[in-house]
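A note from the maintainers: we've had questions about how concatenated examples are separated. There is no special marker in the raw files; a new sequence line simply starts the next protein. For clarity in this README we add a label.
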Amino acid sequence: MDAHEETDKNGPLTALHEALSAGAPGAVATALEPLHPAQVADFLEALPAEERLRLWQLISSNVKGDILVEAHGEVRRQLIKESGPQELAAAVQRLDLDELSDIHKELPPEVIEAVLQAMDDQRRQRFDVVRTYPEDCAGGLMDVDAITVRPDVTLGMVLNYLNRYRAEHGNIPEHTDAVMVVDLGGNYQGQLHLSDLVSLDPERKVYDVMDRNVAAITADMPALRVARLFEDRDLVSAPVVDDKQKLIGRITVDDVIDLIREEAEHSVMATAGLDEEADTFAPALASARRRAIWLGINLVNALLFGRWICRGAGDCRMRRMFRGGGHETSDEYGGDAGGSDARRCQHGWRCRNPEPRAGHSGHRARSGAGGKSLAAAQEGTGGRRDQRPALGAGGRPHRQFVVRQRQAKPGFWRGVDD
């Protein structure tokens, strides 16, 4: 995506931010019109608390319910707290039943009571069914807007029924790729695919063309297993039944996508001791209290690792190597020679021998530059052992050299010969 496309994508959000900063309510309302409720919810979560509440008061009640569904834990509760009961009731009663069930536990009791009173008997019964299931199972994911037909009617009668349904409700439920077939007792029998409905003889019976191979999902099936079924079977929708095989709803692909996205967000944020329910702009004390366990574990790990370095890497050269991620930045050798020296230090550490061998001193005499012994090499440099060794071909030290012995533990560091 180039810079121009990115600017066009974020243009409405930029306009909203500029209108909010300018304090122009009319411009804010204009900037909100092209935005999806999910975009507005993300924008609210990215604002500090004071600006968030100021924008919330400027949003129309017609979309506040959808924004509450898209918002996460602490931000959603803050927005609900700042809204009046009547305003909240008007905002959430427009929601689908599955969306209402996602937030009904966070709504004040008087708001829930007002919403239930505004429902007809059939809608109230369906809502009671939906909110009895937890969110992490198929019953918590399902919609109760499944269209059902009987198996003994003709395809032409089903088409007429769908036309009347659209006229009464304004639209067919989203992601409807099939209608559910049930008997007189409401037991699930199969599916009638819309492709068969519009392409076959309208005089044929439903039981002649319905698909009996689409197995129903039980309401208590774990949500992650439902997602796996949708992936394996390439499903767009699937029926949900209770323990008596009665159809109680359906799960659509958008519900599964939301579940996968939430699981991915949770996994990423958990690595930092956060969760998607947290408010980014919450007070520092509240955030620290919520992340206390995670912060404590990381502090202990840092202290243990630091102590290990101090005990096992007492030599200053070794400490520099650890700070450099395994490559020493030596003042004495520099460049590639410093990295080679660090590798020799590591090899010497692995092969350390606390006691010198019999007949050997702490530093074994080795041939230095030009075949000189260690003593002769030191005499040639004024007795300074930290003098940079003679350079060989290519401006690098000779392959054989002696690594400085650690003062505190004689014999710990040995001369290493590659």
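[label: protein 2]
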Amino acid sequence: MNKFVYFIIILSLFQSSNGLANMLPNEHSFALKIVSELKKSKKCAVVTYDKKIKEINCDGHKTYTTNIFKDYQNLPSKDQNNFIVDLVPVLSGKLPTEEKCYKDAAPLLMPRVRERFHFEALKIYLKANGADKASAEIPYLLVNDHLAVGLTLNTKNAITTISKQQLKDWKIDFNIALDRAIENLRSLSNDHPFTEAHSGVWVSSWKDSYDPSRLLLPEMIRALKVKGEPIAFLPNRDTLIIVGSEDSKGLKKAIELVYKGRKSHRAATCMPFILRGEKLEEFKASRDHPLYEDLGYLAKLSNQDQYEEQRSILTPTLENDSTMIAEYKIITPQQGESFSLSVVLDGFMTYLPESDKVALTKGDDPEQSEEEFSSRLISFEKFKEVCGHILERTDHYPQRYLIKRFPNENELKSMGIK
């Protein structure tokens, strides 16, 4: 297997009484302890730690430490030392699952349903950190516009994302491997059913990093007693919430659970989805829905999270200071509905997110009043209608448009902007 493999470490509770006397105080100390253990194990010829990007490199096998440090912090003190020791084969890339034979790997395959942006971001991260093209290609299948499913190898201590190169080495088609992975998931899903957190609100109880993947088992979702069509939320990797589309009280409770669940450091998306037949779609409530604003805000919040992370990934790749990765911000006025906003600034090429409204700002008056700023707001639809010819659709997800010049006076006038 290529060494540029992305590892996501599972939080495991080890039954040992030999723990560290005190928790390592910070991520840097934690990383240095891991490096020390890796060197003592002699599993790697060269082990380095880059404090700036928080990355351990073991013979070219790279791991970011932020999430595993948070897992470590959440463990009882008696389990922390074993957690570090058991990370050694994972972080070194020397796992017994480094099998070239698909037959041996097949029982360990699992499908991982994640927000589509997870796969897009992973690809960019791998390329940015030196992975070759084949290793950076992570095969996945779209579940809908916002969710996707990929393949993982599930072992005791780690979940390994399967690359296109690994499938090639195994000489197996992605869809065949995915079918096997779904069957593996189904066989592991019968012992821990959903629990009813509130009347009509069902919450998954597996907590195995595959809870959202149970959306691939529609018969299990359909078996839950809800009012209307099942609506699904997946606020983090260990939580799947199901509630009925015609259950306003249940939906309100579910939304509360979503806000609680998204506080996890392994947050996913708080966008609502609805199961119609066998198809899972984004749930967009009608304007007369009693929770229209609440549900719409969740979707905006998911977009804001993803656009911000996308911005942090893309900004270092910019070649000059005259190009801007525009922010996507949620504005909540004292009166009226919340809306998303992005800014096009005169004098800059802009990668623009798809927000509800766009502010077209000249930039020659940094102290412009709120009234002046508001007068330069335009709906995204109107902006595309008038200035579609200067918007270049990019291949990013979430969607962005490259704008190489600011709208001219005639175009501004057509949009009602002075």
